[in-house]
Amino acid sequence: MISIKLNPKSEKFIQLFLIIITYIMIVLRFLLNEKGRVSPDSIRYMRQSEIFPIIDNTTAPLGYPLFIKFFTYFGIDDFWSSKLIGILVYTFLLFFAYKKRFFFKELLIASALFSFVSIFSFTMAEALTFPFVILLFYIANQILNNKISTKSGIFYLSFILILLINIRYSALFLCLGTVFFGLINYKKFYWKSFVISGIIGVGFYGLYKVLFIDYFNENYINTFLEIGLKPTSQLLTELFQGLATTFDPFIHIADPNGGIINYGIYGIGVLTIIAMVFLFIKTKLSETEKFILIISLVSIVCSYFIQYVYSVNAIDYRLLAPFSIGIWLVFFGKLFQIFDSLTYSIAFLSLMTGFVFTWLSKGDYLENRSVISEYLEKEKLKNETLKFYIKDEIKLDEVQVAELISTVNPKIYVTFDPRDTLQKKVLTKHKVESKIRIKKNNYQ
What is the C-alpha to C-alpha distance for residues 87 and 287, in angstroms, rounded to an integer? Predict the structure, then answer.
């Protein structure tokens, strides 16, 4: 068995070097993207932050938009605030793990994986879940090692689960996983802490649904709840692809056009999953590791089955990120036991692969931002509430223009009604690109 053990001074140097490179890659990931790593959901997040306390979006909780809003009070716009959040999240993860000596080396490597670098650089809520997921693991560790009382454990776990629900509704799955962990460990001294806190989390979501979602959007259920959206054959295919890319430590996005390269991407992911299963079965797991794996797996299973009744995007690395990070931590912990410091090479290889991918598919956000800013100012639309007509949301080139505009003026709504295009404040891809040239790429 090959392993490398570094002396403490050399290992600290490697860790510091890895941290610096990861910071650089997070920044490059959104600067070398033609629209700054935003998506249609990002438009809603930034708009919600901009217009708050007006509520026009209940498809996502208020937690992430309010964090963006907070940083705008320091003179930073909504787009740059979202990027600052990603960088601060990464900083907090390492600082907390180091101070508490809780999965620090494992988190250092996991955070450097290209998929997580992509999350930190994305204007999406998943990155903000990471600190609270790690806090959830830490409090569970304290409970399992009998370092805090049952009452304190229930309070802290419940509080963290509630915070997570206020960032991502899918945190409800973590609540269910917490209850499940408590139930399968019935009669152990800690079981009540997990069952009660999980039930409190589920109960909070119920209240949130009635008091907030239904109040501002009485058609929420009719809009998003629909049985039989996709056939099982399609969902299983998407599950395989999602898991294979999520657990590929190097490339987390398959080529949408297909091709032989996808066999390599999926193959590495499948091999990684097999290695994980083998190590988790063959090695002794601590109670904390069992908790992390169980609630992560329950959450992934729930993410699959919710698709039968709820309209969500296909499972991918982003949706699974709050649930996959714990599995990566346990996996890297096992690899450290076998390969010691050689495990750091995975992080460096992932960053290297990520840099090549980012460079080959590079755009120029700063240049495009400058162009779109000049256009909006010239048209006197920079501070106006806008609409952007899209004929087909699946066509990425149409959506990309709206996404880019939202990074400068987040008060933009997407419309699918052709009649709206007659209005001056309703933009279209043709209207914008007939006056300016936006540099694009087709890979990100």
Answer: 31
